[in-house]
Amino acid sequence: MKTETNLLNESRIERLLVNQDATILESMRVIDEGAARLALVVDRQRKLLGVITDGDLRRALLNGADLHSAVMPFANTAYRSVNVKTSRNEALDLMKCFTIEQLPVLDDAGFVCGLHLLNQLIQVETLPNAAVILAGGKGTRLGALTKTTPKPMISVAGRPILERIIIHLVGSGIRKIYLSVNYLSEQIEQHFGDGNQFGCSIEYLKEDKPLGTGGPLALLHGQQIEHATLVMNGDLVVDFDVQAMLSQHHRDANVITVGVKNYTHQVPFGCLQTNGGMVTKLVEKPVLQQTINTGIYAISPEIIATVKPKFTPITSLIEEALSEKKHVGAFRIDDWIDVGQPHQLAEARGE
To answer: What global pTM score does this model have?
Structure first.
């Protein structure tokens, strides 16, 4: 089963454009000839003003409009779109999350430069797994940026980090999401509500006191958790295969699967290897490599059941599982940025 988006070429985009002064009849012809089931209503400079579908035109006619009525009053001006810099995967996540078949692509000034199409609308497989997003931290390392805004609500490419995460999870088949909140939680709750507008159900795990990265899992007690839960930090700009991670977790009979990434650092100095006061080797600016923890986990119900409602680093759950000789797996994640410090936020924003 394959679901993909195609970005239409320039000639096909031209066939989908109608002027803001166009009539319903002219728009019908564009929709029919463009074979994308919509027309893009633009001004004379090609700036997108609205989107009109065959369904919109049908409703207009049923409500008394005629074929020579102007189309603009019936266009959808609250359309969803993406910037030309938006990745294909992110566009696909948005289309899956909001059940969109067409997604206009605009430049920074709002001019049409493309259109993503879902070639064949196939509902993504709904997973039985829930997700917990840790969104309660103060983000003090970001200084003034988080004095009035919780870190997960900081914007990257025009969208809050936490919203990007939720859209990705829903686009991957997650339908039940718990947000662990504390600092300025009312902003998060007001933005996401019950999750209905994002195609999922959202509940809030409210920390009366800081519980670390592991303690909030105790707030799941009493919930019906029968499958591995995806747990992740709320300050990540990340793209990873959710279904593949959960599948590997199940296949390998892990109690915890940790998302990992290879991290390399080049020492900016010439180094020496020595033995008993003697130099044995010169190493010029060596590159060191380590496997790092990305802050993304799949955790089985048996582990969640043991968590106490107190400050608990999630790493202590991993260490305990290892000491008991339980299976702890690693799942590789490549496209990942931890937005914890100003230079990391700048990297995520492409600055």
So the answer is: 0.69
